[in-house]
Structure formats: structure tokens, C-alpha cells
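USER: Write out one fold?

ASSISTANT:
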Amino acid sequence: MKVLVTDRRHASVAEERKVFEPMGVEVIDQFCESEEDLIQNGKGVIGFLVSYAHITEKVMKALPELKIIVKYGVGVDNIDLNAASRLGKYVANVPDYCTEEVALQALSLLLTGVRKTCFFSNESRKGHWIENPDKEIIYRLSKQNLGLIGFGRIAKKLGSFMENMVQTIYFYDPYLKISP
């Protein structure tokens, strides 16, 4: 049995080999840029491990041995889910991939904006000192409210980071039927 790593962001497939090879599954590491590359390199494989490659109906139809397509990450918009369903191909993802990292980046950007870190840093590098600090008001975060649009994994994690930093957290998510 074989699986194909169609494309990747990480340096090597050493971790994949540690998982699959003890089970007798060969890991093929071949960057695929087109449908033709996927079809050519996908012959005889049972699974694709995908980052960005577009897995189309044409690709799936050409590879009857292909049983599962696993996305490195959350979104599966590069995989034709309707075709996969019709053709009996399983599709999986990593739903919590980088949730904490993205929420922490959002927190960093939020704090940078609230504290005007970039503005003051740029001004001081230019030799400009703010003579009237009231001109650039920085509000106390603990007296502020935070609004989140969407309340999926990332927003929930960001909310957990912020819950002791702000007064109230509000959210809006049209897909939620009840309050969290």
C-alpha cells in the first residue's frame, strides 16, 4: 500500500514515514502542480496527504484505488467534496490545526493595535516624540469590550485568552443556534 504526499509546507515527510511505514504503507513524497501530476504520481496509491493541491473530480475518477484524501489543515475548499462523495472517497482534515497559533497571532495584533505599538515605535525611530500624550489616547483594556464575528475554534480560543483582559466579550455567529 502507498500514500502520496501531494505537496507540503513542512521540511520533510519523516513524521509521516514514522506513522505509516510500521504499518507497511509506503510514503511517496512528490510535489504535484497539476491534475496530470496528481494522476501520474497517484497511480496505485490509497491515500493523498494534501496541502494546496486541487483534488478534482477528474483526478479522483482517474484513480480508482484512491480511497482517502487527508488535508493538512482545516479548510477543504481545494477538494471537490461533491465528487468525493459521489465516487466513494473519504475526505478528512485536521480541524484544530493551528487554532492556538492563529488565535495567539490575532491576540498579538489586537494588543498591538490597542496599545498603538507600531505607531509609537515608528514615530520614535523617526525621532518624533509625542509631546502631548493625550493626542494619542490609549484606552485601558480592562474597561473595553471585545466583539467577535464568528465563534468557531479560533474565536473561542481568542476569547479564552482575552476573558480576563476585557470587561465583556460579545460574539455574533449566524450558524450558532444557542449561546455558548
Q: What stands out?
A: The chain has a mean pLDDT of 93. The chain is about 35% helix and 15% strand. The chain has two domains: 2-92, 99-172. Residues 21 and 27 are 7 Å apart (CA to CA).
